[in-house]
Amino acid sequence: MAQITIDSVAKVFETARKRTVALDQTSLTIDHHETVCVVGPSGCGKTTMLNLIAGFLRPTAGTITLDGRTVGGPAADRAVVFQSDAVFPWLTVADNVGFGPRMQGMARAVRAERIARFLDLVGLSDFAKAYPKELSGGMRKRVDLARAYASGPDVLLLDEPFGALDLFTKESMWTALKRVADAEPKTIVFVTHDIEEALFLGDRVIVMTPRPARVHGIVDVPFGPDRDLDLRADPGFQALRMTIAHSLREVHDDAS
Ligand SMILES: Nc1ncnc2c1ncn2[C@@H]1O[C@H](COP(=O)(O)OP(=O)(O)OP(=O)(O)O)[C@@H](O)[C@H]1O
User: Fold this and answer.
1) Which ligand 1 atom is the nearest neighbour of the CA of 160?
2) Can you give the residue ranges of every domain in the chain?
3) Which of 6, 9, 47 should be mutated for ligand 1, with most atoms under 8 A from CB?
4) How many Å separate Cα 232 from the centre of its chain?
5) What are the tens digits of pLDDT across the range 179-215?
6) Counting beta carbons within 10 angstroms of the beta carbon of residue 19, is it exposed (0 to 12), middle (13 to 18) or buried (19 or more)?
7) Ligand 1 site: residues with CB under 6 angstroms?
8) Phi then psi dihedrals of residue 181, to 5 deg
9) Which of 81, 78, 116, 83 is nearest to 97 (CA)?
10) CATH 3.40.50.300, domain 4-77+153-255, yes or no
11) pTM for this prediction
12) What is the predicted ipTM?
């Protein structure tokens, strides 16, 4: 099981010059093996929320639990993928993917099997022996994904992972992520600015308010698991895209 509960969470950043309330009374439950995509105005607190779930930050008030256990810090049950690559340039693709399993003390044969499985799922089997500098940005992102999955987390936290990629590379990453996620279901929290990305990948799309980020609205995505890129032409998809865009405009206008 991997259910995340964010219960009345606040996060205040205090520096000598400034006090920023990033989250206040924020509550959300993310179900086991659900993919939730989070959209919201820039600077509202989405990354902060993700960092709290990851355990990189502690809430100022409220609690975050994973299956009823309070999140007290980072742990192997949660993997994070950021917009910037986190690959080690001095390791081959295979060794990058096998890094987490090696740290966890997995036997060599089990590790090799995991590396092969996830490289295959992200479409990088032919590049196992390559070094990151020999790869395109999209391919490095695939390594990031394979690496996150190979450690065997229950929860995957993605912070605008494809934000820096061009549209076609992004589309191929959506397909790659869906393929891995279908093969090895996880509870996924995906922060993005891209409404189509959110609708294509999410079971639900959460629209946050401007800072402090709270849940403004929740859109249930009615499309089944078999989604292909042409789904975006579907009138139902476009209608939901407009609903989310309006919702974002609403919170943006309220804030200005
Ligand atoms: N470590 C920190 N110290 C002080 N303030 C911080 C810190 N981290 C984030 N903040 C502030 O908290 C607020 C929320 O930031 P956060 O990065 O969570 O927003 P976001 O919704 O992810 O933004 P974007 O969509 O632009 O990536 C911002 O005002 C930011 O300046």
Assistant:
1) 27
2) 4-77+153-255, 85-152
3) 47
4) 21
5) 999 999 999 999 999 999 999 999 999 999 999 989 9
6) exposed
7) 13, 15, 20, 22, 40, 42-48, 211
8) -65, -35
9) 116
10) yes
11) 0.95
12) 0.97
